[in-house]
Amino acid sequence: MKISGDAVLHAPIERVWQALRDPAVLVQTIPGCERMDATGPGAYRMTVTAAVGSTKGTYSGTVRVHDGKPPSSFAISASAAGAPGTIGTDVQVRLSEVDGSTLLGYDADATVGGMIGGIGQRMLAGVARRTADEFFAAVDDALTGEPAAVGFAEAPAGRSLTPGGLVAAACAVAGFVVGAVWGRRRG
Amino acid sequence: MTKMFGAPIPRREDRRFLTGGAAFLDDLGHDALAVALVRSPHAHARVVDIDVSGALDVDGLIAIYTYDDLTGALAEPLPLLIPHPALTHGRTAHALARDEVNHVGEPVAMVVAKDRYLAEDAAERIAVTYEPLPAVVGIEAARHADHLVHDDVPGNVAANYTQAYGDVDAAIASAPHRLSLDLAVERSASTPLETRGVLAEWDTESARLRVWSSTQTATGLRAAIAAKLGLDLTNVEVITPDIGGGFGVKIVHPWPEELLVPMAARALGRPVKFTEDRAEHFVAAAHERAQLHHVEVGFDDEGRILGLDVRFWHDHGAYTPYGLIVPIVTSTQLLGPYKPGAYRVEFDSLYTNTVIVTPYRGAGRPQGAFVMERTVDAIARDLGLDRAAVREANFIQPDEMPFDFGLTFQDGRPLRYDSGDYPATLEKLKKLVGWDSFEAVREAARAEGRRVGIGLACYVEGTGVGPYEGGHVLIETSGKVKVATGLTTQGQGHQTVFAQIVADELGVPISDVEVVTGDTRRFPYAVGTFASRAAVMSGSAIALAARNVREKALRVAADALEADTEDLEIVEGVVRVKGNPGAEIALGTVAVLSNPLRYAFDEASQAATQFVVGDPGKPPVADDDEPGLEGRDYYSPPHATFANGMHAVIVETDPDTAEIRILKYAVVHDCGKLINPRIVEGQIHGGVAQGVGGALYERMAYDEDGQLQNASFMDFLMPYVTEVPRGIDIDHLETPSPLNPLGVKGAGEAGVIPSAAVFASAIEDAEGIPITSMPISPSELFELRETATSARTDSRRHSEDQR
User: Fold this and answer.
1) Is A54's CB within 8 Å of B114's CB?
2) pTM summary value
3) Cα–Cα distance between B439 and B335 in angstroms, integer?
4) Using one digit for the tens of pLDDT, what is the confidence trace for B562-578?
5) What was the ipTM of the complex prediction?
6) Given CB atoms, is A55 within the 8 Å cutoff of chain B?
7) What's the distance, Cα to Cα, between the start and end of chain A in Å?
8) Closest Cα to residue B533, out of B485, B579, B568?
9) Residue B448 CB partners (closer than 8 Å, separation 6+)
10) Mutate which of B33, B38, B56 to disrupt the A interface (most A C-beta within 10 Å)?
């Protein structure tokens, strides 16, 4: 399944790149990311709790961020499994500056298996696009000083985010991609 | 023992049905996920976009499927079940619309949710963008072909087919008298009380699919599901629960939902169920009947038809999954009991942007009977002859049987009548309805200011088409007899009639016989229940299987009793030596002996130890034998067996309101040997009721945009018990079929076939106005009167002007 989309973030490209590396921003904005730990250079283990329609579940897996070309592009590969099914994704992310704002574009190619893979492409893609939109709206709010969307601000205590620029970005982008495919924010 | 074959015993299944013990499709799968379909609101449109985002927040939503989710064979068009060389432009739908919809109700997306309410909520929030296209509605629009239903089907013609014998043009040209008629029959539908439904369970561990469906063919559906879902046939089971009526619509398979629900069950690993609602059934199942006919006929002074030339146009709706069965049945069964000197029939099967047309009880015969009988009545009127006499002059005589027209019937086999006595049938009918004394009745009514009319109509019905059915009969060690056949039951009383056959063949009490139908686990080879074929096909197969079991039972019993098989009889489930009281063995014990197990675990096996069977010098199961007391056999006929019948009706038409009342309805019916006269009469009653509906009430009111205006039981009129004749006078002839071991012919559709014809005949007789289109409502009759009156006035004025 292929999912593509874009978002306009109202800040210059360097600030967007920074924000995507800023744990404080990510804590507020990543949907459903329960936990993320570094396991090596550019490689991480993460846990996401997500729901697609009525199909709820917790997914554990790995994320690898690679081919970073600051501030214009990077790629993410992720795979995870949970009771409702499995997922593998490759995502290309592009950033470009237009009139002081940043245009972010992404192309994700996801393979979804198990029951969650049987719920229908349009429903998966619909959930993914909307989750991505919510994530970028929250990032944009953080960049422009607006209050974060309800729900995102209340990061659960004990969430573990390893600090560090690329890690944060990986968590952010992997979070939205994986979260997008897996489901909306918890609750 | 009382002979069961021919006994009018009550239906054994009715106690269960009448006391709430039945289990229909929707009674199953309480915990299953529920399905709702998003269906096209347009008769003809391109599907531009399907946006599901609005549905995502519906609590309980599990899955949404569109065409893009279909893979492999499932993404291909649905099967064209019955191809035909003349069907040059057959088209079928996709299980979910790909890029175009061709009738209101065509499925576009399927929602799965925790229950039906939530599924409907989600379905309602899916936004489909359509680009509407011009709709082709009705035969005239299809013929004109200003617009096309399918871009690649020129003229909207799927098939053009002609059958003929003799030189019809010469026969008509040289005939002393000639007439031409234009006749029309409207759309109607089966509308069974139980709508369609399917439940599927996927067993992940064994990779097996189990499907329950309200279908008229479990085996056909099983094969279709296996093919479309890429499963091995042995890993698919289809079971029919109790079915609340079919009347033809459920022989279509696979319905989109019958593939999509199993697909979802497999994808989700959970049971999934679809139950069609009534509104859906009107626009998402199937219709029948709509045809326009043009008849040219040439005849002699006695009304004998010398040449009959029929050209007709058949509206088959948006797709052709069931091929040309309906128009072929019309074109062949139109002939009824008559033998025109020469005959030609040509039809076009036309696409329209309406619900598909597939067989509905009668399956093209009501139209054929209407056309033929209207023609015969027109001949009688033209010549001033008695309508019954003209029919008699045209009958095939009993000594001409078997009668081969040289045409091909719907099963691809010769149109060859096997038996029947049409003059005797007519004689009985005339007596039953009081045909010869009706003029006195008419005069008496006229004296009271009342208007009455009498009509009659004949038909011949090809029943029991092949290719085959099978039966399996097993005697358990308890003496209970388990019977299975693969075809399905949707209310016919198979548990009664098949048990009657077996009780007689085996000599067991009917209470010991249990019949299972439509379960592929019990009998995997079968065709289905349609074309009035179950009693003929499965009845015969079960009889043959029972005879095999009887033969083995007698062989084993003869060994045990040290007697000759010739000297044995089976009475009340006990094999006895004739004239030697006490020398006997119960069938259950024979069953034990037939299976050389060495364990005595119940009374039957203990009882068996007193007998010694088998040759001690041979293995316990001989080379050419098998353990157990069971038999399986198949019946495959050379061609259909042709039942026949004649109906007569006396109607009264209100001089002011044009209301049509039925005063008397008489049926003479010949379906060969009767297995259960009570059930046959029930079939006739039901058929007459449905026929009254088809003649006077039921129609599909499509507007010019292809919207069905009467898609509910509020607006789709059907006869209540108040509209069905209170008493139906029935008489039987029993002309056995020489084609099968029981001498039976089918009876399921008979009651409905001549209805439109017989009512048209009676109303025309009462009113003196030609009736050329059915059904007819009081308003339409009123209009006809107005038109006829003004035409008379005009012609009177015209002749006055000339003077």
Assistant:
1) yes
2) 0.91
3) 29
4) 999 999 999 999 999 99
5) 0.71
6) yes
7) 26
8) B485
9) none
10) B56
